[in-house]
Amino acid sequence: MDPTYVAHAHLHLFGSVLDPSRPVIDVGCGDGAQTAAIGQHFDRVIGVDVAPSAVERARKHHGAPGIEYEQLDLLKPEQAAALHERIGDAGLYVRTVLHAFTPEELTLAATSLAHLAGDTGGAFFYELAPASRDFIVGQLAGEGVPAEKFGFVFDRVPLPVAREENALQRELEKVGFEILSSAPIDYQGTVKAGGRHVNVPAFFVVARAGAAR
Ligand SMILES: C[S@@+](CC[C@H](N)C(=O)[O-])C[C@H]1O[C@@H](n2cnc3c(N)ncnc32)[C@H](O)[C@@H]1O
């Protein structure tokens, strides 16, 4: 599987939960590669990221008709509420964004996601598993690479935080999402060991807004 545009490959997992008549938000879109892939299947896709440099890069490299990018900080729920006010309920695609958040940050992010989804939005999460922290550190120890380096190749994000297996699902449920399905799935990133891609423990969650908040 080409990790660059993996959203294509995962369409069978999230395609049916994201309403094609609503905008799809690629939350924490990074360089926009997945945003562009999603844009091939949905009429309106908005990539949002806290980093202005990411938004700029995404606009430059992964712009297309129907695709927009803007800055949004998931840790500031008022920003998500303002975006929801402008565009209404949206479908959410979230790939490897939440793993480095502290418990308090995860709660804030879940509140933002609930604002964005509104009463009807579906959501797909493809996130590094809590076990990925030890896995990554172990891989790096085996390769003699300092752990921070892995953060560097992982788009400069910090290592995943240690948390319980179902922490994300529980946070989502607290803000009113219904979990429709969830399962382990490897994350294949850009890291190679011995010439082969490293598969990092990850998981996906398919959810739907709608429970009383
Ligand atoms: C590992 S990258 C993943 C990028 C993209 N989703 C992908 O799969 O290629 C994590 C992204 O989350 C963004 N991010 C981190 N904290 C954020 C926040 N508080 N609000 C919005 N985006 C955030 C980072 O700027 C970065 O672009």
Automatic annotation (TrEMBL):
Pfam families: Methyltransf_25. CDD domains: AdoMet_MTases. One of its GO terms (biological process) is antibiotic biosynthetic process. One of its GO terms (molecular function) is methyltransferase activity. Residues 24-109 form the Methyltransferase domain. Keywords: Methyltransferase, Transferase. SUPFAM superfamilies: S-adenosyl-L-methionine-dependent methyltransferases (SSF53335). This is Class I SAM-dependent methyltransferase. It comes from Streptomyces chumphonensis.
